[in-house]
Amino acid sequence: MPWRLRTPRFTNGLFVLLLGYLVTIVVIDELTSRYLRLDVYAAVAPMVAAALCAYRHAIAIGALDFVAMTVIYGVLPSSVPTVARAGAILSNALMVGASIAVARLLRDREELLERERATGEAAQRALLRQLPLRTQDVVVDGFYVSSQRDALVGGDLYEAVQTPYGTRVLIGDVRGKGLSTLGAGAAVLTAFREAAYHRRDLTSGVLAMEQGLARYNASREGREPLEAQERFVTALVLGTDGAGGPSDAAAREEPISLRVVDCGHVAPYVIGPHGAVREVELAEPGLPLGLGELADHPRAVQRVVLPPGCRLLACTDGVTEARGADGSFYPLAARLHRWAALPTSELLSRLRADLAAHTGGQLQDDAAALIMERLAMPDQRALEAARD
């Protein structure tokens, strides 16, 4: 939104410049011949202030311009004909009035846009919770970048919830991009959150997600273009086997056994504690949500072992298929090998910045990346101090 460029720092500096410009015009007008009328040039100041400065600054510049022109052409002695003097005062009065009116309209528009932005941000945050997300045994951190300007969410989705059956993690990518995909994403997310608490096995939860997406697609029939009525979603659903919270020191020395259901999604990576990185090869990738009925057998639950100290990175194709200026895809595997020894927050920060640099800040698709790792053990000394 361009109007948000009118920051206090910007408008304060411009106000000083316009004030100096107006004073300069008044001084020149006073020192030169009365037939060299500069009132037109003085009227530029309130016009610029209305467009680029804060509302109070526009009023101050307009009032100063009107007072100065009234004094010069209406109070001080002058050989300029009365009609010309009256015309100068009237024309400046009209310009100042119009400038203040424009400034008021722009201020009201800014306030309306800000309210809409806040409302939209709240609605989008209700759809996708802010990262990192923590459960009893893992923490999921990451980033989300929408390809649509000023949007916080779009066609990608993620979630991590603690359930009676362990942690459930989802990352998905709706066909398409931008805000037009929000409905399909919301349908899948809602079904995932509900099924995670009431269905023990991952496959039945995935079936619930597929049914939720089917209901959404059916509700759009005849109301949108055909391609928008047939949304499908690639997804990766992961689950741990049970609780085992951060205080369970013995369990923390054991590998994490993840159950995985792949619905045609980008393969994840396992990042080792000493910089080793490997792509997880899933035997049965499966079909995306929305296309499951085309398969002749149910989706399979596969196992991925996450050794102690290892992390799992999952992302959407907005990362792996991001193109640079030369048309090359983003080299995710090579970057992960380079940064594998970094802490999660720093790795994600570097990945996000490098992705923006690779694409020149022009993502063609929404991009999301998640890193899942075992929740850190609480510091024993801190716990003892808290008890005291």
TrEMBL record:
Alphabetical UniProt keywords: Hydrolase, Membrane, Transmembrane, Transmembrane helix
Domain of life: Bacteria
The keyword Transmembrane helix is assigned to this record: yes
Pfam families the UniProt entry points to: SpoIIE
InterPro entries listed in its UniProt record: Bact_Sigma-Reg, PPM-type-like_dom_sf, PPM-type_phosphatase-like_dom
UniProt-listed PANTHER family: STAGE II SPORULATION PROTEIN E, STAGE II SPORULATION PROTEIN E-RELATED
Protein name: Serine/threonine-protein phosphatase
Native source species: Streptomyces buecherae
Classification of source organism: Bacteria, Bacillati, Actinomycetota, Actinomycetes, Kitasatosporales
